[in-house]
Amino acid sequence: MVRWEVECPTYEVVGALSRFDERDNVFSRERLEPGSIEERAYHVAHPELVKIDRRIRAFIDAVNSPEESNSQVDAALYKAGFGPVVGLALPDVVDGEVAPTQVQVDPAGMAARIKALALHLGADDVRVGPLNPAWIYSHRGTPPFFAGYRSNPPHFDGLPQGYRDLAWGDPVEVPHRYAISMAFAQDRDLLGTGGTPFSDLEVGRVYALGAMVATQLAAYIRALGWPARAHHLRNYGVLVVPVAVDAGLGELGRCGYLMHPWLGTNLRLACVTTDLPLALDPPVDLGFQDFCANCLKCATACPSGAIPTGEKVVVRGVRRWQIDPVKCLLYWSHLGSACTICQTVCPLSRPRTPLNRLLARVAFRLPAVRRFLVRLDDWVYGRDFRPAPPPAWAG
Ligand code: SF4
Ligand code: SF4
Q1: Who has greater pLDDT, 227 or 93?
Q2: Is 253 in the pocket of ligand 2 (CB under 6 A)?
Q3: Distance from the CA of 238 to the center of ligand 2, in angstroms?
Q4: Where are the alpha helices (DSSP H) in 296-366?
Q5: In a 10 Å sphere around its CB, with 0-12 CB exposed, 13-18 middle and 19+ buried, how is residue 191 labelled?
Q6: CA gyration radius for the chain?
Q7: Which of 90, 93, 201, 319 is the most buried (most CB within 10 A)?
Q8: For atom 8 of ligand 2, which residue has the closest CA?
Q9: Pairwise pLDDT comparison (71 vs 289), residue with the higher score
């Protein structure tokens, strides 16, 4: 795959960048246990969010209480996909001791080795970029490490014995210079069932794979005598999408996901931050900003209206499309599953057939062709979301 490497990423910085507080993330807020110290502290500071946070919590209640909305058989798939990955979230798993002897490395050779290892372990693509401090969370906001946590399923209730890392509300520091960003492809057929226990299973499976590879890669680097920390679904210290954009893994799309040159938006991300000397990859301009400006397919297909049909807005110093995460999560609550419609309908997420690869290459080069490709995608795959059937093994 030819990449269009450029000096600056395609998001537009228009003001001072500021760090995002993980406590404000809807996935942190939905997990606030009513009446807990964290919930009371958060809602004293944000009384305007009390009502809406009660509503978004319904998603967690649904996946944990199958009798309320899902069948036990369906909920079992969610728990299979998302449950065990929390075991990879412990501080001593994402990070840990660094070998006392430091292996001296050639940055270009080591970057090649790291990429080969990541691909071997299960990543579908990997690039190395600088770690911009603006993409580090300002404060820890995600459980599982507080009392009453009972999500996916309740492996930890309160801080585990011997826990010596960040608790909810603590400032986050990630003192590394580089980030190794990895993309993991999802199965199109399962994802295309769109907000079902089968798409949940696939999303959880791929997040778990990303978590495993990131923790393995970080352990490898620490054994070489260099600090390294894995960032994955259940323990992020950084915003993985802009970190991946800076490494040239793709561009930020209208739907808020990374858009990758051959996986489109059909992927999940994980990364490792480190001080291991590595040759850096530049960002890319694949024409996706123009493609998204002319496409809007995810926005029109989104059942909750969470994806904007209009212009970009300025978010913490960056001009970008901004989805409404509350609308999105409320729809998930309604389904009782994570919705995957925007990733499924994206014309760039189509199967990697020789014809599709050729068309994508032409679209990268020729802006005039992009509009035609959007229409062609509508014609071949339809404008609206068409759910795929459940897998045969589901009986
Ligand atoms: S996941 Fe579903 S509800 Fe959320 S933004 Fe995508 S299409 Fe909309
Ligand atoms: S569906 Fe269209 S507008 Fe949405 S992310 Fe994909 S290319 Fe961009």
Answers
A1: 227
A2: yes
A3: 24
A4: 297-301, 325-335, 341-345, 354-365
A5: buried
A6: 21
A7: 201
A8: 292
A9: 289
